[in-house]
Amino acid sequence: MISEVHRSLAGLLITAVLAACAAPGDEPTISPTAGPTAAPTTTASPAATEVVLMTHDSFAISDAVLGAFREQYGAEVRVLTAGDAGSMVNQAILTREAPLADVLFGVDSTFLSRALDADIFESYRPPAIDQVDPSLRLDNAQSRVTPIDYGDVCLNYDRSAFTADEPAPKLLEELTDTRYRGQLVVENPATSSPGLAFLLATVARFGEAGDYTWVDYWAGLRDNGVLAVSGWEEAYYEHFSGGAGEGDRPIVVSYATSPVAEVVFADPRPEEAPTGVVTDGCFRQIEFAGVLAGTRRAEIARRLVDFMLSPDFQADIPLNMFVFPVTDVELPADFVEHAAKVPGPISMDPAQIDANREGWIEEWTNVVIR
Amino acid sequence: MLAAPPLAFVGLFFVFPVVSILLYGLAPGGVFDPAAIFDVLRRPFVLDIAWFTLWQAVVSTVLTVIVALPGAYVFARFDFPGRRLIGALAIVPFVLPTIVVAAAFLALLGPRSPLGLRLEHTIWAILLAHVFYNYAVVLRVVGGLWSQLDPRLEEQARMLGATRWQAFRTVALPLLRPAIASAAAIVFLFTFTSFGVILLLGGPRFATLEVEIYRQTAQLLDLRVAATLAILQLAALAALLFIYSRYQQRLAVRQRLVTRRLAARPVRTRAEAGFVIANLAFVGVLLGLPLAMLVERSMAVSGGYGLDNFIALFEGSARRALFVPPVEAIRNSLLFAAAATGICLPLGLLAAAVIAYRRGPLANLFDALLMLPLGTSAVIVGFGFLIALGRLPIDLRVSPLLIPIAHALVALPFIVRTTVPLMRSVDQRLRDAAAVLGASPPRAWRAIDLPIIGRAALIGASFAFAVSLGEFGATLFIVRPDAPTMPIAIFRLLSQPGALAFGQAMAMASVLMLVTAVSVLVFDRFRSESVGAI
């Protein structure tokens, strides 16, 4: 596929040069340019020699696994990336009438409701769905989307910053305590997916009514010197002190699996991960795949969804995307050893998230930033 | 006639997509509702954001021009060892993805600042980063013209008793104004639509129209608000550009340009040496320090320094499969950049010829139109592609060609901006002389105009190539095949925890810096050869 890109680029260079030499005024640049690459995308191949997967930028899977799909079904998986999860869903909605791909992967619980309301998926119930934990099957009744993986957004802490006498926090409530003053860095829920997940966790945990609401909790965090930044990269690498981080704050909003990456992507590998996970107040993000409505390759698209639940694909997920597979496949040893087990993760109805997201973010902004 | 190809290009890949998405947002049922626009404009947050967007852009532009003019002078007028190298390195910041620049600035000004400065999440960090980014624009656009101004004009003024400053103010400055206005227009467009710098260095307290449009489009899918804000942004820029283009025409002064070799001379006095050294030191601190921080971070390995991160880059990792070997990312970047330059160089030269030779309101309008893509929200253009280009007979929406096309759209203004002032400044008497000597108009054009245009085209092309190498914003909002460019590869590496991932991201950023510097040096070499050929 890469070589196809190069070939068409070379073709483009030639056409551009030709265009430059051609007599001005005969509009040479547009139509010939379009020729070489557009052909394969518009020709519906009757034998379905390829299937197009639209996903977000964090998608990663081994070449060997995609090769196995090709061997099995004789079709190449062509991957299109479309920005972050929110941007991807919105692009799929805008192109509903003429979809860009056959299968969409990576819509999570925070954007699921919007995608379902916009009716961008065809119903499909893969046979292997019965092996998946029912708590992950959020659209079980209509089967428009299939859960593929899940991960938990949790607070991480720098092990070297805490001792037995001055322990790391165990509960969300403790973070408003002066012991942890100036130690927490979070992501802005308006621009960051883990930031939004953590906000949702606090809404679910502290509620919207009563003496002490989630807004009061955040006011407490603000008074205790919480720092809000735009994205995960900045929070983790620039402000967090643990692991690869270079900052001065020992607590950060990240993932339950971040310590695994701290071990796997370290040289030399440490015995124990340099970061720990606070397993209270974790928000569960589930990622789904679905067959896009209007695809002309529905048959092979369904096979791709089946394949994503197959042991090959599922077992390849953890070390590529640092999330958990939804079926019962053997986890890599690093995962078993270093990923945090979250006893009671928080989740929320996608419809409730969609209806309140803007309002909650607005309120959060007023309390924390203004 | 000459205007047709660039018009068709901008029409198809800019006007059509942007109008489509705006209509989609403002006339959802096919019925346009102007009240909806005013409804959005009345919200208090809109005024706040618009005001902040404007003032930070004005301040950033003024600061950049003031700070970079002495540098442009030094690089245009003096010959000193390493001039070409430093000149090439100065353009490197311009193409670095904001995510990398933010890492460099936070290392300098953040929690572990070696300078003891804590500027993150302040307006100062934003302004500093804008100057860092755009210094090269002023240096190259103004320096390009300055290096071809006849130095004897100033020398004559000095001989008549003017001080150095008076000679600059009364002789050089008026002649340079078109180039200064050109550079300022580009810097303004860039800072007016600033996105990554605001998000990453300004933090959540600051938002430009661009940031809010991104939020409304990519996160909230509220296209009504997004479209209204985009119109506000476009209207402001269109007004500015129209005024600018009229001003530019008034400013154009015909003059005899000389070759760079004649204009640049060795340092003569101690005061001149001091001035050159002071400027180089300033460039070193402003541009060199953050870049050095990046290199430092790319070499940091557990227990000291080493090349491990670079070696890991070239080995690739079997585990991250779609994360293609980084060498592949370098090749992709170079190919996209070559394609983008190939598309926009001929279009840009045609457009510049129209603007320079055909004056009048239509040419002004055309000029402003070509500049608009630079000042339009990347997410609006990207989402506009999705809506508009699906309606064409050939579906370009998922074609890999869309990436160089988007890059060409962004790079086109650079070619136009660097070429127009030079084309306009060609002395008509030279052409007349050629005609008197019996040259046909095409031949006179070849002999008089072409060499100067060639030089301008190379400056523009090196910018276009560099813009495409570092382009990240527009690429991010285009659905693209999995052929990551260097900035995308850096972005992906940075979204993984772990020391190796971070180290490799920094190593990739260092490679991007190197590739950019080398490309610019290569273009500069061509440029000096063409000068020598005159």
Structural description of this entry:
The complex is a heterodimer of chains A (370) and B (534). Chain A has helices at 2-21, 31-42, 63-73, 85-94, 109-117, 193-206, 214-223, 232-239, 258-264, 298-308, 311-321, 333-338, 350-368, and strands at residues 50-55, 76-81, 103-108, 121-122, 146-158, 184-187, 227-229, 251-255, 275-292, 324-325. In chain A, strands 1, 2, 3, 4, 5, 6, 7, 8, 9 and 10 form a ten-stranded mixed beta sheet that branches. Chain A has 370 residues and is α/β, with parallel strands linked by helices. In chain A, 40% of the residues lie in helices and 18% in strands. Chain A is globular and about 65 Å long. Chain A has two domains: 2-149 and 286-325, Periplasmic binding protein-like II (D-Maltodextrin-Binding Protein, domain 2, 3-Layer(aba) Sandwich); 151-285 and 331-368, 3-Layer(aba) Sandwich (D-Maltodextrin-Binding Protein, domain 2), CATH 3.40.190.10. Chain A is built from 13 helices and ten strands. Chain B is mainly α and 534 residues long. Chain B has one domain (4-533): Orthogonal Bundle (MetI-like fold), CATH 1.10.3720.10. Helices cover 75% and strands 2% of the residues of chain B. In chain B, the strands form two sheets. In chain B, strands 1-2 form a two-stranded parallel sheet. A two-stranded antiparallel sheet of chain B has the order 3-4. The chains are: A alpha/beta (370), B mainly alpha (534). At the A-B interface, helix 1, helix 2, helix 3, strand 2 and helix 4 of A face helix 1, helix 6, helix 11, helix 16 and helix 18 of B.
